[in-house]
Amino acid sequence: MEIEVPRPGLAGPSRALSVAYPWPRLAVAAAAVAVIGVVAAGLGAVNIPPGTVASIVADHIPWIETERAWPESWETIVWELRLPRVVLAGIVGAALAASGATYQGLFRNPLADPYLIGVAAGAGLGATVVLVSGGPVSYWGISILPIAAFAGAIGAVAIAYAIARRSGGIPLTTLVLAGVAVASIAGAMTSLLMIRANPDVRPLLGWLLGGFVGARWLTAGTILPYLAVGIAGMFLYSRILNVLQLGEEEAAQVGVDVERTKLVLVVLATLSTAAAVSVSGLIGFVGLVAPHAARLLWGHDHRTLLPMAMAMGAGFLILADLAARTVARPSELPVGVVTAFCGAPFFIYLLVRLGRHAR
Amino acid sequence: MTAALQLSGVSHAYRGVAALSEISLTVRRGEAVGIVGPNGAGKSTLLRIGSGILRGDEGAVLINGNDVRGMGPNERARIVAAVPQNPTVPDGFRALDVVLMGRNPHLRLLQWEGRRDFETALAAMSLTDTEQFADRPLKSLSGGERQRVFIARALAQEPEVLVLDEPTAHLDLRYQVEVMDTISRVRYERGLTVVCAMHDVTLAAQYFDRLVVLAGGRIRAAGTPAEVLRADLLSEVFGTEVVVMPHPMAGTPVALPIGTRPRTSASYDGRAVGKGEPR
Questions:
Q1: Tens of pLDDT along B212-223?
Q2: In this structure, which CATH number among 3.90.1150.10, 1.10.3470.10, 1.20.120.50, 3.40.50.300 belongs to the domain A12-358?
Q3: Residues of A in Cβ contact (< 8 Å) with B82
Q4: Residue A356 at interface with chain B, using a CB cutoff of 8 Å
Q5: Cα–Cα distance between A55 and A61 in angstroms, integer?
């Protein structure tokens, strides 16, 4: 068959015959996140100029030589205290945004968020079980709360998925409803355990409200593999996720193995979310707002949407954590409170300002 | 020569309710077959099983002589393409983006659409006369325009068999003809085999070589439009009295329901229907 050349003028003879991937925009977004991180790491009880922060960071890169012109205490503040926290906030924000974008695409519902099918309630139950069990909460200085929360989150989603799995297929509405049911049961069990066992719930409350207090390089390093696998996998499937926007039946008609795709995406998004939640607690709004905002601003193609949402989520959560630790100094605000206070108005602004164009 | 599509002894039930019973149907290569019948006759189920996305409870489906059960989703989608009855119109995608999605069966997981995919998609849009909409959001197009974009998406799969489920439903006369003409054109240009469910038996008779009448999940009749569209059969199958006459231009059979209204204005005396309204 001969290829017909598109008529000039309308479709245009100069049309690019490849996917126009916005590399410059992604580079700008990545640079913006880096700048936000460096500035945030410099602010606090002791203010350190961004240039010095950048030098301290560069000093830790093996093949870069820098002149050490800063006090030793700054080194500790930036490298040991603030940077791990900034980096953890960044990767958690990116992971929540990527998972949120994936869930919103998978369920074809802009109101979906990473906690939709039971991750949050499962994580809460896991952490509570550890607290009320009476055993030690940490071994060799490593808290087992994150591990229990991670297991609870994965377990809740697995049960919801198993419930929805009838006659070979997973209807997405059933999956959401099963997630709601599992979350209710997990929530009820959490309340029951807390009332019956009457433990010191402060560690649990602190964790539930979410935050990055006491973040260490080890924390970030521990969850990074999960996030890397989850995010890379979601990006691999981003073109298929576009095709899925046609609806399940039509996606199947163009050769998508719909059931397998759903399973893979739920596993990847749950893995990333559970890892993020296990170390940072339940931080709301990032996973909902960042992908939604990225979609309103830069379009629906998941290949672009995923990285742009991640940049937004990372930048937003770094700034929210900065506000959480500086606004009410010397005490700290729960970062979830900050994300809600800043995220919601921004979200409303986007809806009002850009919602019309998106239609 | 192997048949493009062959169903033998296909039966299917949804939760115990039989939708199709012992359907055997052979569609020759290059043939255009219309599936007609009343609502709930099983037309959509037949197409879903025939295009391989639904597995029937019983019977076998052969595409190009190969059992569909042994085919991977991509392999199947390179041979059979489908235009669904009520296509979901995704938010925020241009018409060209949606047509490019038809290239999926030719792409690997990690592969993005390249030059050849864009050329194939644009050629498909040119054939369905939709290339002028390439950069328009699909949502902004009218029903008939969208339907042609979805046909272009199916063509982008470079299939051998095109399956359509009531492509003219909800369209006005002009768009009905446009869509049917588009189907005819792409059929001859690409040498496609077409299987198409239709509500409108008259339109089906005008455009297809052979019609299959489906009722209650069974094939009631099959043959050329002239053989199949008989007043007695249609009246029985559709449960309403139908007259059949030749199309004044095309010569193909036209089926007209008689209905219950008085047949001429002369027989309308204003009281039989008006129930004593003041005049």
A1: 999 999 999 999
A2: 1.10.3470.10
A3: 250, 253
A4: no
A5: 10
